Amino acid sequence: PVVRRAVHAPHLTSISASSFVLWNRCPACWRAVFRQGFQDRRENFSGEETPGGPRTGELLHWALALWDYTPQQLELILRPDGPLVPPLHLRSLWREPRTKSWIRQLIEGFTTLPSFKMACQAKLSGTLEREKPLRLDRPDNLALTGIADITWTDGACRFIRDYKTGNFHAAAQEDAVQQLRFYGTILRRTAP
User: Fold this and answer.
1) More reliable by pLDDT, 49 or 9
2) Which of 68, 110, 160, 172 has the fewest CB atoms within 10 Å around its CB?
3) Cα separation, 46 vs 66, whole angstroms
4) pLDDT value for 46
5) Average pLDDT over residues 155-162
6) pLDDT tens, 160-171?
7) DSSP 119
8) In the predicted structure, residue 48 carries a pLDDT above the cut 50
9) Cα(95)–Cα(120) distance, rounded to whole angstroms?
10) Mean pLDDT score of the chain, rounded to an integer?
11) What is the pairing mode between strands 129-137 and 157-161?
12) Quick one: residue 155, left, alpha or beta (phi over 0 = left, psi -120 to 50 = alpha)?
């Protein structure tokens, strides 16, 4: 006798903002990265971490999530002998002075932007949300997901800030815009 097994075709249950952006840019690249496990060449994986690479970006996000937007807290986070320690896989990079210098430059640059003042006001008013998980369950069973670095509400407007590192050539700028639109779609459709 022949035993037949039911074979179910694999299907997506969710798509993240990063996945969506890569799919729009190059479906074949998306398949290689998200289905076959190849490394995304848009990220720096040369073996030596450089400013803007994925691990320094992860460190920046870690520091920004801890930061209370005061100069004193920033100094505490960036102190060489400070009490705050990043996740284990980032600690060797964190000990490098050039990494902290680069992170300081980015954060200090952020403090000069109008959006920083808006985020500070939102923090005081209690509308600032950090590392906000986003999810929109669609009728076709494909959920749109992501994590917004910071969001806040000011009146009837909802703001999203997504920190970016690395070189910002034209394609990267368009990718960042698509990612913000993706987050905006989720927020608009799930907001109370």
Assistant:
1) 9
2) 68
3) 29
4) 44
5) 90
6) 998 876 666 777
7) H
8) no
9) 29
10) 84
11) unpaired
12) left
CB contact burial 75-86 (16+ within 10 A = b; e otherwise): eebbeeeeeeeb
pTM: 0.77
Q: Which residue has the tokens 């990718």?
A: 175
Each residue's pLDDT tens digit, 53-83: 778 888 888 898 888 888 899 899 888 777 8
pLDDT of res. 45: 42
Contact partners, residue 103, CB within 8 Å, separation at least 6: 56, 59, 60, 63, 78
CA distances from 81 to 74, 75, 78, 95, 99 (A): 13, 11, 9, 9, 15
DSSP per-residue letters across 15-62: EEHHHHHHHHH-HHHHIIIIIT----TTS--SSS--TTSHHHHHHHHH
Q: At what angle do helices 17-25 and 170-190 cross, to 10 degrees?
A: 130
The contacts of residue 141 (CB under 8 Å, 6+ apart) are: 13
Whose CA is closest to 165, among 97, 91, 99, 75? 99
Residue corresponding to tokens 């400013």: 51
